[in-house]
Amino acid sequence: MLCSIYKSLKKDNTYLYINKKDDFADVPAQLMSTFGKPQFVMAIKLEGRTLALADVEKVKQALSTVGFYLQVPPPVTNLLEQYKADKAAK
User: Fold this and answer.
1) What is the full per-residue pLDDT of the chain (90 aa) written as tens digits?
2) Strand partners, 46
3) CA distance 1 to 48
4) What is the DSSP code string of 19-76?
5) Is the dihedral of CA 86, 87, 89, 90 positive or negative?
6) Per-residue CA distances from 65 to 27, 39, 42, 59, 79 (Å)
7) CA 52 to CA 27: how far, in whole Å?
């Protein structure tokens, strides 16, 4: 399965995977509005591949069922809250 990957110029570390280059027909208009103008990153073959921040099987499933996959960055760890929790545990 081939897919094209685009990055958001509005949202850092946010990527959109679609089935066909420049075909955003399956992506909801509201998502495209929030995502902003997509910047093409690359086209890749998903078979036999691992992805840095996404489960390749989830990506393939989403592409097959809804026609796109949105990769958002992992949540930022609140270091102060983590420190307080560690201190309270001691």
Assistant:
1) 899 999 999 999 999 999 999 999 999 999 999 999 999 999 999 998 888 888 999 999 999 999 999 999 888 888 888 889 888 988
2) none
3) 10
4) SSTT--TTS-HHHHHHH-SEEEEEEEE-TT---SSS-HHHHHHHHHHTSEEEE-PPPP
5) positive
6) 12, 23, 22, 10, 38
7) 23
- CA 45, 51, 55, 59 dihedral sign is negative
C-alpha 72/C-alpha 11 separation (Å) is 9
The residue length of the chain stands at 90
Q: What is the pLDDT of residue 3?
A: 95
Full-model pTM: 0.81
Q: How large is the C-alpha radius of gyration of the chain?
A: 16
